[in-house]
Amino acid sequence: MVLNYFFNPRSIAVIGASSDEKKLGFEVFKNLKNYHGNVYPVNIKEEEVQGVKAYKNVKEIPDEVDLAIIIVPPKFVKQTVADCGEKGVKAIVIITAGFGETGEKGKKEEREIVEIAHKYGMRIIGPNCVGIMNTHANLNATFISVAKKGNIAFVSQSGALGAAIVYKAIKENIGFSKFISVGNMADVDFADLMEYLADDEESKAIALYIEGVKDGKRFMEVAKKVSKKKPIIVLKAGKSESGAKAASSHTGSLAGSYAIYEAAFNQSGLLIANTIDEMLSMARAFTQPLPKGNRVAIMTNAGGPGVLTADEIDKYGLKLAQLKEETMQKLREFLPPMAAVKNPVDMIASARGEDYYKTAKLLLEDENVDLLIAICVVPTFAGMTITEHAEGVIRAMRELNNEKPVLALFMAGYVSEKAKELLEREGIPAYERPEDVGIAAYALTKFKEIKEEV
Amino acid sequence: MVLNYFFNPRSIAVIGASSDEKKLGFEVFKNLKNYHGNVYPVNIKEEEVQGVKAYKNVKEIPDEVDLAIIIVPPKFVKQTVADCGEKGVKAIVIITAGFGETGEKGKKEEREIVEIAHKYGMRIIGPNCVGIMNTHANLNATFISVAKKGNIAFVSQSGALGAAIVYKAIKENIGFSKFISVGNMADVDFADLMEYLADDEESKAIALYIEGVKDGKRFMEVAKKVSKKKPIIVLKAGKSESGAKAASSHTGSLAGSYAIYEAAFNQSGLLIANTIDEMLSMARAFTQPLPKGNRVAIMTNAGGPGVLTADEIDKYGLKLAQLKEETMQKLREFLPPMAAVKNPVDMIASARGEDYYKTAKLLLEDENVDLLIAICVVPTFAGMTITEHAEGVIRAMRELNNEKPVLALFMAGYVSEKAKELLEREGIPAYERPEDVGIAAYALTKFKEIKEEV
Which domains, and CATH codes, for chain B? Predict the structure, then answer.
């Protein structure tokens, strides 16, 4: 597939690479330097870029070039694309802005550029974008910091917001498999990327930030097909009247009624997020297997968070599992008298790692339970580390071969960071807020339904 | 007011203070050591606690004692409270658990303890709680880490969740003026605390986490009065059927229909939060003046976040302000041609600190604007630091004497942390998510309405 040249190129040309720290071409080349394939700087003036021999034109590079990143001023872009065609480049990312987003003249030029590219069988991402990342191949073809390695393919129609989300994800230890800033979508669009990412083994979920879809029919066709295979989570800006007005003032185009988008998203089997956190929380869930039904067991070391989480799952039509008598009896055997053995199981503050292990195991073995949420707040007893609680859950999950999904809610702010890392390393998404773990549980059950719909 | 002895005691006795690191009494005494008043450890066995001479009984302390913190085993609590009475103690925090939450026998004992206290004119917070903090007096009478100094008085009915929220707030740089874990509320309850906090100058907002209210009538009476003076934000657990069931399994008592609570909260002028983040986001807003109306101006350096924020304010019935022609004309004079001068004002990615300053000033001067939201995402141009954007907003606000409220949305994850700190130091709440700044704007306008209702 030609899109693979974007994410796993054998060699890259950075056209507009620079040694001048004030230029975007400086950051892009710096970010690409460590890529395992050959990376060639192209600059009409500089003989050397950041210590690497530079070429005046992509055509002079004495090697094949799969991917070209273009960061030259807008007036040189068209000729540069033609040069890439002659060189035999397969894929182009145009970071340069000043095209379709500026008005009719820019739109016309954008179309001409795409025509040139297609003549040579090349595909274009952009223009007016931040670039692309493939964290699993150590590829950062952007001018921003690289995302952490993970399982979410994140596609953003807003470059700035996309970058903001990358930085947020770094801070919150959320990993991406790919980051794709699609810019004006002059050529490669959401549909192309969904198709490509459907078969990308490193991406367990696809998250889309959408401002407006151009070819609605094709978008829906592809989404319908891909959403049977892989969860697609969508966040659409411009939901409200004010938002739509803002979007129209921003892009000059109508954002379209959100009701229409919503209907189309639902028909296409997409999972709809209302906020960035909802989008990320849902996407993170898919390192876990899908549940067989919607019966949720909650285990906790404090009542309050259990109640807040029960409130959240209720919002999405999930049910508190009715535990088997046998399960409750066994829980009663080792939990203290003050503990609640009915779901939500409140092991109370004295619970240690061993209690987490035994309780998680019993709940996962109960045939009335489809999904487990393991909650931990600050242990109130001195000498306790919150990591042992995480380890207990991990041990239970390992022994049971991970057949039922487990989600974690570790709410102790900076105190629980290490425990969350342990869980994440095992593929157990560890959330900090009841609403995040609630919508994650919803996403797993909803995707199960979408897959099974005829 | 007698409650002041809890938060500004001249001297404190820690009864059950210990040198044994495994005991809660170790942490509590350690946390109190730096208090400016005298702090005396009381321990029946230890001659010295953490290097400080200990007393066998509170009555032996050769000084007046305003506040006693009790962490002795439950069977000794009643006698200890009586000793405190004889000593002339004014206020008692009982951290020890094992009373009303264990059943009828415990409830009876709890009542007896309160009777003893009242006989001596003492008030009790607890039992079964984490303790209390007054960050402005360097008082941390709990066994957890101290919260950052701030303007929110946070009262929690769940000790563990309260602690989790303190740790979360530390991580997110949100400050508390007071933290009060009320435990079983055997004596001092929400109503008492609202009354006290209404006059507390260090608390600009009161945030309550509620599982269940005992004396509904008095709660409403006090809330109605206090909410005219100071914003009270309430988060109630057990909103849904599952949640109510969970709460009932947790406490053994019925949580009561949420619809009834909701009606009572609304009648009493409380601001209702649905999540912890909503509670904190609303409470943080009140370092700003109240808006005259509900017309919001948004300035941003990227379209997407402006649209998402417009979506959020719309949810709460706020309006995008219609800017005056004159304002738009003046914006046009210095913003680049690609910028949008209609609200939301999109200064585009090239915007620097000076643009933030000029734009903020023009928007705040526009008589059609009641409230300003200043948004900043990652500046995409190399050599730009996000702090200059924050400084621009601060400068505009200072020059205009802070008459209209300004809220900030700085979305660049770890990249924007320093900028957010600068803003917070000036009393401008700096959020990271559109939904948080949206509900903060709502809280300011809603509280304005509540104050003015007859």
Answer: 289-452 (3.40.50.261)
